[in-house]
Structure formats: C-alpha cells, structure tokens
C-alpha cells in the first residue's frame, strides 16, 4: 500500500505543477483581457477541443485501453503492447482528422451550437469561429498525448504525464503576454495553445520511448484495438456527457448577461484545482492498480484499494469543499481581482465557485467509481448514470438560473453530480463500502471539517488575510484529526 501512496503523490504532484502554472495563466488572462464578449468567445472556442479531448484524455479511451494494455504487457510482452498502442494511435489520428475537416469547413456552425446566444452577433461569432480554427489542431496533440500517458502510468511513471500540461500553460502564458503587448490581441493566446500542445506531446513521447515504447507498424493492426474502439463507444458517451454538463452550462449561459461564460470558466478552473490535484490523481492510480489486481486475480487487494481511494476522497474533499464555500470571495479576489478584472467580476465568479464547490465531493467519487467499472470493462453502467444526470442537469439549469443567474448553472452541475455518484455506487458489483467499520472515521472527518469551517469563517470576519486563513484552516482540521487519533497517511497507505 505504500506504493499506492507514492503513486498518488507523484500523480498529484504532477497535476499540482500543472495547475499552479494554469492558475498563473488564468490570472494573467483575467488581468490582461478582463470579462467581456470576446473572452466569452475565446473560452467557448477553447472549450470545444477540450470537450473532445475529454473523450481521450480524461477517462473514455484511456479507461478502456489501460486494462487491456496492462494485460498485454503481463501476458504477451512489450512488443505486442507497443503494436496495440500504435494501432490505437493510428485509429485515433484518423478520427481526429475527420473531426478537424468538419470543423474547418463549418466553423461558424460549430460555434453557433456552443454559443447560441451570440448566433445573431457576427462581431462575436466570426472571431470565435476564427479562433476555433486555430485551436482545433490542439485536439490531435493532446489526444495522442493521453494514450502515451496511459502507457507511462502502466510503467509506474505518473509525474511526467500529469505535469505535461505545464508545457501548455507556459506557452499560453507567453501567448497571453504577447497578445497584451500587441493591443490586447487574444489570437496570440490561441497560438500559445497550439504550440503548447505540440510541446506537451513531444515531451510525453520522449519519455514513453525511454520507458520502452517503440512504434510497431508490421503485422497489421492489433485485433484488440478494434475491440477497444467498440468498447469505448459507450464510454465516450459517458465521459462526454459528464463534460457536456459543464459545456451545457456555458451554452445556456450565452443567453445570460455578457461575461457569464467567463465567470463560469474562472470558477470552474478553481473548482478543478483540488479535483484534479487529488481526486483525478487518486482515480488515475486506482484504475491502473485495480486493473493489475484484476489481471492477477487479487480481488481482496482490489477491494482494499477501492476502500483506500474512497476514504482518501472523504478525508481531503469534505474540508476542501467547505473551505472553498467559505473563502470563495477572498480567494477569487486574491487571484483575479486586479487590472481589468473588477469588483463585480470577483463577486460573480465567487458566487459560481461556491455553487460548484457543493458538488466537489461527488465529482471526486465519480472519478473513482467510474474507473471501477472501466477496470471490469463495464462501460454501459457509467453511461446510463451519466445520461440521466445530464438530463437532470439541463432541467435544473433552467430551474436555477432564473433565481440565481449563472451561479444557478453551477449549482445544477453539483446536484446532477450528487445523483450520478449515488447511482454509480449503488450499481457497483461485488463491492460495498464498509460503512459500519469506517463510520467513526467519516464522523471524525465531518466534525473536524465543521470546526475548521467555523474557525475560518470568524477569522475572515475579523479581517484575517486569506492565505493566513487557509493555513489556519489546515492547522485546525489536521490538528483535530490528530486529536481524534486519525493518521491520514495511514488511512491511504
């Protein structure tokens, strides 16, 4: 189990490296360009290749091929595993080529689907379409990078794949700065995305070769590759629907006040920070580890890994969610509140962050539960849960946005995540969380989080600096957990 902790820490550290640079990027973009219709257009254009990226980089194809790849390395050797991976890369490249052709022919139509509220505004629609044409090739770079990252995970390399997005963020930072110097031309930010994606792919490819990957073109396509694409179709829909929950929010937000899309983007970026740094790291390692356990028939080890993953999520995400809700305004103000990002922008973004944070725990559990299904090659159950939650999300968006505006869209996403998390847990076969055994642990986490929340709230009302308040909150939470004689490192070891 110590190995599991090390792998989570490596993956988490890699994601942390990337997310810190991503935050620097967002701070500069917010300060340089502010909140307006042009930033709404950029974030929608940037979200479109990222939506497709989610199919390959954040669960779907990676979750299906990692168990197969692990089994091939164990049973057939390195060459057959490389042939299988090469076949997948060729297949994905063809699919992406067809997507790119369609987008380049009909860019305005594609943008109109994702920004219907601006459909009759050519001053925004045309620039967004032009930005999309620059941004879409990024999809190819990041999708192939995702396949190679899955290979590296199997080879026990977690930091490099998780931190590779740092190269993208550095390129975007440079692009944002150049664009600002060139009279606020946001197209330079788009060029930064394109060049950063190329750097990211190059870096991951180099390390994959170092770890043993060699492209194999002889012997034809691997027969398992075709089977993988058949399996991935429902998984594509499952992951795609989860991402569409966020995208649908932006689509609906295009009918609200100018800047609503940008508010949701910045709030979601901060919401994704703890989610990506810890929950995604735990989910990524869990998928690899339980896939290996399944291949070896070590089912008790599999259940123990799942228990550790769930308890880790509880221990970190419950206090993180409470902290984000209480400190949303000072955090947003500290990070974004400067230059072109005004006071009203801070308030609007903080409100959205609070509503997203309500669902942090549930999104984290989904990250773990969905990978349990993928490790067993069951992609239909997550698809059903994701589809129902998507329908619920759309209905709640319309119900909540009238009283809460753009923040209602964020709250709808959180409530739908709650449903999806419960649905996935209820349908897991041959596993049940040991609630009777671990109820004391959960109560201690809840009590420590509640005490932390109270202390942080009152410290904030007395004007304590937000960074000092975060440190105080961590001290209170971990201190009380220590008083309860809970060793958090032992919990996940």
UniProtKB/TrEMBL annotation:
<keyword id="KW-0133">Cell shape</keyword>
<feature type="transmembrane region" description="Helical">
    <location>
        <begin position="159"/>
        <end position="180"/>
    </location>
</feature>
<dbReference type="GO" id="GO:0008360">
    <property type="term" value="P:regulation of cell shape"/>
</dbReference>
<keyword id="KW-0813">Transport</keyword>
<feature type="transmembrane region" description="Helical">
    <location>
        <begin position="247"/>
        <end position="266"/>
    </location>
</feature>
<dbReference type="GO" id="GO:0034204">
    <property type="term" value="P:lipid translocation"/>
</dbReference>
<comment type="pathway">
    <text>Cell wall biogenesis; peptidoglycan biosynthesis.</text>
</comment>
<dbReference type="InterPro" id="IPR004268">
    <property type="entry name" value="MurJ"/>
</dbReference>
<keyword id="KW-1003">Cell membrane</keyword>
<dbReference type="GO" id="GO:0009252">
    <property type="term" value="P:peptidoglycan biosynthetic process"/>
</dbReference>
<dbReference type="GO" id="GO:0071555">
    <property type="term" value="P:cell wall organization"/>
</dbReference>
<feature type="transmembrane region" description="Helical">
    <location>
        <begin position="27"/>
        <end position="48"/>
    </location>
</feature>
<feature type="transmembrane region" description="Helical">
    <location>
        <begin position="438"/>
        <end position="460"/>
    </location>
</feature>
<keyword id="KW-0812">Transmembrane</keyword>
<feature type="transmembrane region" description="Helical">
    <location>
        <begin position="407"/>
        <end position="426"/>
    </location>
</feature>
<comment type="similarity">
    <text>Belongs to the MurJ/MviN family.</text>
</comment>
<feature type="transmembrane region" description="Helical">
    <location>
        <begin position="352"/>
        <end position="374"/>
    </location>
</feature>
<dbReference type="InterPro" id="IPR051050">
    <property type="entry name" value="Lipid_II_flippase_MurJ/MviN"/>
</dbReference>
<comment type="function">
    <text>Involved in peptidoglycan biosynthesis. Transports lipid-linked peptidoglycan precursors from the inner to the outer leaflet of the cytoplasmic membrane.</text>
</comment>
<dbReference type="Pfam" id="PF03023">
    <property type="entry name" value="MurJ"/>
</dbReference>
<keyword id="KW-1133">Transmembrane helix</keyword>
<feature type="transmembrane region" description="Helical">
    <location>
        <begin position="186"/>
        <end position="210"/>
    </location>
</feature>
<keyword id="KW-0573">Peptidoglycan synthesis</keyword>
<protein>
    <recommendedName>
        <fullName>Probable lipid II flippase MurJ</fullName>
    </recommendedName>
</protein>
<feature type="transmembrane region" description="Helical">
    <location>
        <begin position="466"/>
        <end position="484"/>
    </location>
</feature>
<dbReference type="GO" id="GO:0005886">
    <property type="term" value="C:plasma membrane"/>
</dbReference>
<feature type="transmembrane region" description="Helical">
    <location>
        <begin position="85"/>
        <end position="106"/>
    </location>
</feature>
<feature type="transmembrane region" description="Helical">
    <location>
        <begin position="135"/>
        <end position="152"/>
    </location>
</feature>
<dbReference type="GO" id="GO:0015648">
    <property type="term" value="F:lipid-linked peptidoglycan transporter activity"/>
</dbReference>
<feature type="transmembrane region" description="Helical">
    <location>
        <begin position="313"/>
        <end position="332"/>
    </location>
</feature>
<feature type="transmembrane region" description="Helical">
    <location>
        <begin position="381"/>
        <end position="401"/>
    </location>
</feature>
<keyword id="KW-0961">Cell wall biogenesis/degradation</keyword>
<keyword id="KW-0472">Membrane</keyword>
């Amino acid at each position: 189990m110590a190995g599991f902790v090390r792998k989570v820490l490596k993956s988490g550290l890699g994601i942390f490296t990337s997310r810190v640079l991503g935050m620097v990027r967002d701070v500069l973009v917010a300060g340089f360009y502010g909140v307006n219709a042009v930033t709404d257009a950029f974030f929608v254009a940037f979200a479109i290749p990222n939506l497709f990226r989610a199919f390959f980089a954040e669960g779907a194809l990676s979750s299906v091929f990692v168990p197969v790849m692990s089994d091939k390395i164990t049973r057939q050797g390195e060459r057959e595993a490389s042939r299988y991976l090469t076949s997948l890369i060729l297949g994905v490249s063809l699919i992406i080529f067809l997507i790119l052709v369609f987008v380049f022919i009909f860019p305005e139509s594609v943008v109109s689907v994702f920004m219907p509220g601006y459909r009759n505004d050519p001053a925004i629609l045309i620039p967004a379409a032009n930005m999309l044409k620059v941004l879409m090739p990024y999809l190819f770079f990041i999708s192939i990078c995702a396949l190679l990252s899955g290979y590296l995970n199997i080879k026990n390399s977690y930091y490099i794949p998780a931190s590779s997005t740092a190269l993208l963020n550095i390129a975007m930072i440079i692009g944002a700065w150049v664009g600002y110097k060139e009279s606020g031309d946001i197209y330079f930010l788009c060029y930064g995305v394109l060049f950063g994606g190329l750097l990211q792919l190059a870096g991951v490819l180099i390390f994959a070769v170092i770890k043993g990957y060699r492209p194999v073109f002889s012997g034809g396509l691997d027969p398992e590759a075709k089977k993988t694409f058949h399996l991935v179709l429902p998984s594509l829909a499952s992951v795609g629907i989860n991402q569409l929950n966020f995208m649908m929010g932006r689509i609906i937000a295009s009918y609200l006040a100018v800047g609503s899309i940008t508010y949701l983007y910045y709030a979601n970026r901060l919401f994704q920070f703890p989610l990506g740094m810890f929950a995604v790291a735990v989910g990524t390692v869990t998928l690899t580890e339980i896939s290996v356990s399944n291949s070896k028939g070590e089912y008790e080890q599999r259940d123990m890994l799942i228990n550790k993953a769930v308890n880790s999520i509880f221990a970190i995400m419950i206090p993180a969610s409470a902290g984000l809700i209480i400190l949303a305004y000072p955090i947003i103000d500290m990070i974004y509140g400067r230059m072109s990002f005004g006071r009203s922008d801070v308030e609007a973004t903080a409100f959205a962050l609070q509503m997203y944070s309500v669902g942090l725990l549930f999104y984290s559990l989904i990250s773990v539960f969905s990978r349990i299904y993928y490790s067993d090659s069951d992609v239909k159950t997550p698809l059903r849960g994701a589809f129902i939650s998507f329908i619920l999300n759309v209905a709640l968006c319309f119900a909540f946005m009238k009283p809460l505006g753009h923040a209602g869209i964020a709250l709808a996403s959180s409530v739908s995540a709650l449903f999806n998390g419960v649905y996935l847990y209820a349908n897991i076969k041959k596993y049940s969380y040991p609630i009777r055994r671990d109820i004391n642990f959960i109560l201690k986490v809840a009590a420590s989080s509640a005490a932390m929340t109270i202390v942080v709230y009152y410290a904030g009302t007395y004007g304590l600096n937000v960074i000092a308040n975060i440190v105080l909150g961590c001290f209170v939470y971990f201190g009380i957990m220590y008083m309860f004689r809970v060793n958090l490192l032992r919990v996940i070891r």
